[in-house]
Design brief:
Helix content of chain A is 74%, strand content 3%. Chain A starts with a helix and ends in a 9-residue tail after the last helix. Chain A is mainly α and 284 residues long. The two termini of chain C are 35 Å apart. The chains are: A mainly alpha (284), B mainly alpha (307), C alpha/beta (248).
Chain lengths: 284, 307, 248
């Protein structure tokens, strides 16, 4: 019983991290129809910058804030000055972001080296909490909490505020949004920046337990893709459900069949593609 | 491209071992192998318009199949090579069924994800694939063939013949009604559908053909290098094939070969001075998408006014 | 035998009911016009009939054969052709290459992958004949996206004809055309082979009534009225919806 509870908590905490990663990707695609392959880059930059700034200043919080701010800035610059110059078609845009993925990956290798690193956890969040027989790392509970808070914030943002309504309108029809005075250009930049910020946050949160290393950008991208394939591209609900599903399946798969790591990722993807190719909550 | 240019190119390629050092012969061999890889991707990406970004999956799976069979079952060339082709064909048949359920960005994501899954298997299944270290010790083909391909020159001519056959075969396919239908599907799948074409079947057949041809290149590459590693199924290899197609000119017959030449020689030159080849590759991606989306062939056409 | 029959076709998009138990039929060689204001469900009807959308309920019969669950390309092979309201052509192909593809689609040669297209002169002859007949031969080597809008609408019609359809669905063929071009296209449709059944969506009442023998009026997804030209001209309900709605 304890074993299962722990695995479920593990799965949910991993799933929340996946949700953070997928949410940014989905948001950018939903509004701008851009598949941002540089999403993996934003993740590792978030982790690496957080690590370096944290070391230099001695404060993890400063490191985290700096990382998110810098990566958001990078995202904004990338959208405004580079992405806009590419024809507004799927393949050229994706190729451009692919180029950025390669550039950032190699620069990161150059700057931070090839040794895998893990971000240190804040004092407060080390150790574990007990509930009856169950002992669970505090940090992972923190990850779940962050995921829930961010999820609620994004949902509230979309549902309740005017900005959220604008994004929803623009997602449904850019021309109509423009006609009613919504500034689609500013909105695009803001959404891209928000997506980058979410990825960087993922890097900071995931840093302590997933770590950061050469190739992490590709691996994170794959995980985000699988979540979005399962949950549906462009849907916040899809990112959450997909994230939790993949997180749980991956955790249970690894616990029960340790050798078949990749198949626990492959199986849900193949199943969804066979039954509902645009994902659980994707637009048809 | 007109016949004279093709004849000149053929003559030059045939003369390579006579004129260049063995190091450079090796480089041109590599260029020809990657040209086949890029041409296979061109069939689905350039002609049929399918954004397939995980093409190294079929290249790599064939390489691993050849390596495993050659090392553990039989060193007969036909058996090894055949295993490679079969692996590539089966993998592309399976992945095609999954990926072609979707279009556009979904297709792009799915093809990348499927290739990454294979990479994960190659990396993780140490007992079978040797993991990150890969599998070394594959000899140049010999058993089963009338001559040994042990020397650089013999292997070069072998690869050149395969390249010529592949180019010839592709040239026939793209000019055929099937090939023209692929182009029609790229331009407007909806129009093709109501004109009576089974769009899914056309794209599926193209996908499997392309995967199998990528397998040919993968098999050749493992013989060329003598080993196989997870890099062969990695995003980096898919990225190389992709930029060769785009840089050379997607949807043209000789574009991928031009792109391969450019990238292979660039990589060779740059890697002699710095480790930052991937940085350069990424910058090439950015530059090409911004400034030359129709690739080198497009530039050449504007310069020479060929039809 | 009727050429096309549609029985109780119903379809909704989310909460919006686009088609509500629509029933109509067209005899062989008939010219049937589908009228109705924007949002009446006309294009949805065409999309369902050609198979691009699967209806929630209802049946479709092509020459008495039930095609309700057939894929679009299978229906096309059975003789169902279509033009689109938004021009659906091959932007980077020439006019000739486009018509070749259309002709090829109706020919057994379409599966060949081992011989070049040049090895099938009958396809070229058929394509050139079509272009000549419909006045586009001098534009044969022009890329589609360089044609004028009027020429593109013409090409759209030629492509549909090239597939040798027995039932042709034309979705607003004169949309966006100048009066001169409209007259051209109307004359063109008037010259289509008499054994081809034509269903025509039109906003322009003059064009519609010039070409039509029978008329079906859709309104909010239902069949409001059906009958001859004269019946519809006299129908009060039809006049109401057209007076109350801004016409293209």
């Amino acid at each position: 019983m304890t074993f299962w509870t722990i695995q479920v908590l593990n799965g949910v905490s991993f799933g929340m991290l996946l949700f953070l990663l997928a949410a940014g990707l989905s948001l950018i695609f939903g509004l701008m129809r851009i598949l941002n392959l540089a999403h993996g880059s934003f993740y590792i930059l978030g982790a690496y910058i957080g690590l370096s700034v944290g070391r230099v200043t001695g404060s993890l919080v400063v490191g985290a804030v700096a990382a998110i701010a810098l990566v958001t800035l990078l995202g904004v610059l990338m959208e405004r000055f580079v992405l806009r110059r590419v024809p507004a078609e799927e393949l050229p845009q994706a190729l451009l972001t692919f180029g950025v993925l390669l550039v950032v990956g190699d620069l990161s290798l150059w700057i931070w080296g090839g040794t895998p690193q893990t971000l240190p956890k804040p004092e407060l969040l080390t150790g574990s909490m007990r509930a009856g027989d169950i002992v669970f790392p505090t940090y992972r509970l923190f990850v779940i909490a962050v995921g829930v808070v961010v999820g609620l914030a994004l949902w509230a943002f979309q549902e309740a505020t005017k900005a959220g309504a604008m994004i929803r309108a623009a997602i449904d029809d850019a021309e109509i949004a423009r006609a009613t005075g919504v500034n689609v250009s500013w909105l695009s930049t803001a959404v891209f920046g928000l997506g980058a910020a979410l990825a960087a946050l993922g890097g900071i949160i995931g840093g302590p337990f997933v770590g950061v290393y050469p190739g992490a950008d590709f691996e994170i991208l794959l995980l985000a893709f699988v979540v979005v394939i399962v949950g549906g591209l462009g849907s916040l609900k899809g990112a959450l459900v997909g994230g939790l599903l993949v997180g749980l399946l991956d955790t249970f798969g690894k616990a029960l069949f340790p050798g078949l790591a990749m198949f626990t990722i492959f199986a849900p993807m193949a199943l969804i593609l066979a039954i509902r190719p645009t994902g659980l909550f994707g637009a048809r | 491209m007109n016949r004279a240019a093709v004849a000149v190119a053929a003559a030059l390629l045939a003369a390579v071992p006579l004129a260049l050092s063995s190091y450079h012969v090796g480089l041109v061999t590599k260029m020809l192998i990657f040209a086949i890889f890029a041409m296979s991707l061109n069939l689905v990406l350039g002609y049929a318009g399918l954004p397939s970004l995980g093409h190294a999956a079929y290249f790599g799976v064939a390489a691993y199949a050849v390596a495993l069979v050659t090392l553990r079952v039989s060193d007969n060339f036909w058996i090894g090579f055949g295993a490679g082709l079969a692996a590539a064909a089966l993998t592309s048949a399976l992945f095609g069924l999954l990926a072609l359920r979707a279009q556009g960005s979904y297709l792009l994501m799915i093809t990348l994800a499927l290739a990454q899954v294979l990479w994960g298997i190659a990396f993780g299944w140490r007992s079978l694939t040797g993991g990150d270290d890969g599998l070394p010790g594959i000899m140049r083909p010999g058993p089963g063939l009338p001559w040994s391909l042990g020397t650089g020159t013999a292997f070069y001519y072998f690869v050149l013949v395969v390249f010529a056959l592949a180019t010839g075969a592709l040239s026939i396919v793209v000019r055929s009604p099937f090939g023209r239908a692929l182009v029609g599907i790229r331009e407007s799948a909806r129009r093709m559908e109501v004109l009576g074409y089974d769009v899914w079947l056309h794209t599926y057949v193209a996908f499997v053909l392309a995967g199998t041809l990528a397998g040919v290149a993968g098999a050749l590459f493992v013989y060329y290098n003598g080993f196989v590693s997870p890099a062969y199924v990695s995003i980096v290899f898919s990225a190389m094939a992709l930029i060769m197609v785009i840089l050379g000119g997607a949807g043209t017959l000789f574009g991928p070969a031009l792109g391969s030449a450019a990238i292979v020689f660039l990589e060779n030159g740059i890697s002699a001075y710095t480790e930052r080849w991937l940085l350069v590759l990424g910058l090439i991606y950015v530059a090409v998408t911004l400034f030359a989306p129709t690739g080198l062939v497009g530039v050449l056409r504007r310069v020479r006014r060929w039809a | 035998m009727t050429a096309l029959t549609v029985e109780a076709l119903t379809h909704s998009f989310g909460g919006l009911q686009a088609l509500n138990a629509v029933t109509l039929s067209a005899g062989v060689g008939e010219r049937l016009v589908v009228l109705g204001p924007n949002g009446a469900g006309k294009t949805t009807l065409f999309n369902v009939v050609t198979g691009l959308i699967r209806a929630d309920a209802g049946r479709i019969r092509l020459f008495e054969r039930d095609v309700t669950t057939l894929a679009p390309h299978r229906r096309a092979r059975l003789g169902l052709g279509r033009t689109f309201q938004i021009t659906t052509l091959f932007p980077r192909l020439t006019v000739l290459d486009s018509v070749l593809l259309a002709v090829q689609g109706a020919d057994g040669a379409r599966f060949a992958f081992h011989r070049p297209l040049r090895a099938y002169p009958r396809l070229f002859e058929a394509a050139e004949r079509l272009l000549d007949e419909w006045g586009l031969l001098d534009r044969a080597h022009v890329m589609t996206r360089q044609l004028s809008y009027g020429e593109q609408r013409q090409l759209e019609l030629v492509l549909a004809l090239a597939a040798r359809p027995r039932v042709l669905l034309l979705d607003e063929p004169t949309a966006g055309l100048s009066p001169g071009e409209t007259a051209n296209v109307t004359a063109m449709i008037g010259r289509f082979p008499r054994d081809v059944t034509i269903l025509l969506i039109e906003h322009d009442m003059d064009v519609a009534l010039a070409l039509a023998e029978r008329v079906v009026v859709l309104f909010q997804g239902r069949v409001l009225a059906a009958g001859t030209r004269d019946d519809i001209r006299r129908d009060v309900r039809v006049a109401e919806i057209y007076l109350g709605v801004d016409e293209a």
